[in-house]
Amino acid sequence: MRREESNVLSLDFFREYPCISHGKGIYMYTEDGREIIDGASGPVLMSLGHGITEMGDVMKAQSDKLAYCHRDDVITSVLKESCKKISELSGGHLSRIFQVAGGSEATEIAIKLIRKHQIYKGCQGKYKIISRWQSYHGISNGALSISGFSKRRAGYEPYMTDFSKIPPAYCYRCWFGKEPGKCNLECAQALEDTILCEGPENVAAFVAEPISGMSLCAAEPAEGYFKKIREICDKYDVLLVLDEVMTGMGRSGKYFASEYFGIKPDMAIMGKAVSGGYFPLGAVGISEKVYKPMVDAKGTFPPGYSWSGNPLGAAVSLKAMEYLEKYNLVERSAKMGAYLRKRLEEVLYPHPTVGDIRGRGLMIGIELVKDKETKECIDPSVDYTGQMMMGALEKDMLIEGSSGCNKGQSGNTLMISPPFVVTEEQIDVIVERLEAVLTEVEKRNGF
């Protein structure tokens, strides 16, 4: 039951939440003195670590100069510099950047840019967007329309646009019954089949996460998947849009996770780590392929939000990118992520309910099962993921979890994703606490 009434509308109406007073590095501290490891980065957002004074300093300095101006009327030099830096980190491929106040807003802007591009190119019939089941692109209605995350769509379907979805790139539970290295990338071929069914003249874009976020907790495609996807998109004049909200700006161990797969998207959606966790910020980057037809048609792009392109966010993002480079934190994310995965595999794989450990950088997913051989899922009514998360909090550690990875009906996954500044010693503590929780939860549930 609720121990203390609050005017805050929280996720769980009947749970008492720890009240955090401050943070430092990978730790957060409650008002009553508990030290909690932020093993979820807030979730999967606080990339630089808590309590960096210079991040607040740059926000104050910008606020003292100019806290706000509206993008319809003016531009600021700090926004120009921030967008330039994002473009440079993409190797210049993303030549125009549109900043907003978060990942869901960025997805909504991406949808509108997709449409505007096709209209200005003279392809007014191209409006359909194909995505994947078990994907997640944001909580707003447009973003949920192209998301395939059943748990987060549930109840809101009447407000969504009915776009087609193809099977996920999910090798652990391949929807085609194949094994990695022994398939013909049927999950990628499904895109061409769906484009043909919808009519190529009607399909505007394909949207996908390069490495899955919370819906599949760090599942990544088989080798060659995205190269085939790129070929299919080019063949039918369909834009390839990659959702890098979670994977981008170092979380995967690269500035953009697309670098792992040897492809360049036509458009990239960004959020979370783009500000290091210090300001609500998202962005959409587009290539010249997307931009040029709009310019040639003498077009405009009116859509936006009140806080789109605001100078505070631009200043913080610029400082965050500078901080990443100064302390080599993207490389550190890759190195610490490899160590985290190694330790998790060593310690957790022997447990009876650990079916798979996957991921890159500091986004490592764990899939929990009833039977390791058959991959049978634990009964959803048990709320195994919830037990793990609450058990971790009781041991002063936050982890992020998800359910419904098995076609939205069952399945339990965890994401271990501490800030980039985490050390090997701290990772050892994270793994130690996680194993202690897992042992207790397994025993409680008869494993």
Question: Could you outline the blueprint of secondary structure elements for this entry?
Answer:
Blueprint: E1 20-24, E2 27-30, E3 35-38, H1 41-44, H2 53-65, H3 77-89, E4 96-100, H4 103-120, E5 128-132, H5 141-145, H6 150-153, E6 165-166, H7 186-198, E7 203-208, H8 225-235, E8 239-243, E9 267-270, E10 282-286, H9 288-296, H10 311-326, H11 329-348, E11 354-360, E12 363-368, H12 384-394, E13 397-398, E14 400-406, E15 410-416, H13 424-444
Parallel strand pairs: 3-13, 5-6, 5-7, 7-8, 8-9
Antiparallel strand pairs: 1-2, 2-3, 4-10, 9-10, 11-12, 12-15, 14-15
Give an account of the 3D structure:
This protein is α/β, with parallel strands linked by helices. It has helices at residues 41-44, 53-65, 77-89, 103-120, 141-145, 150-153, 186-198, 225-235, 288-296, 311-326, 329-348, 384-394, 424-444, and strands at 20-24, 27-30, 35-38, 96-100, 128-132, 165-166, 203-208, 239-243, 267-270, 282-286, 354-360, 363-368, 397-398, 400-406, 410-416. It starts with 19 loop residues before the first strand and ends with a helix. It has 13 helices and 15 strands. Helix 2 (53-65) runs antiparallel to helix 10. The chain folds into 2 domains: 20-51 and 328-444, Aspartate Aminotransferase, domain 1 (Alpha-Beta Complex), CATH 3.90.1150.10; 55-326, Type I PLP-dependent aspartate aminotransferase-like (Major domain) (Aspartate Aminotransferase, domain 2), CATH 3.40.640. Strands 4-10-9-8-7-5-6 form a 7-stranded mixed β-sheet, with helices on both faces. A 4-stranded mixed β-sheet has the order 1-2-3-13. It has a 4-stranded antiparallel β-sheet with strand order 11-12-15-14. The model has no long low-confidence stretch (mean pLDDT 96).
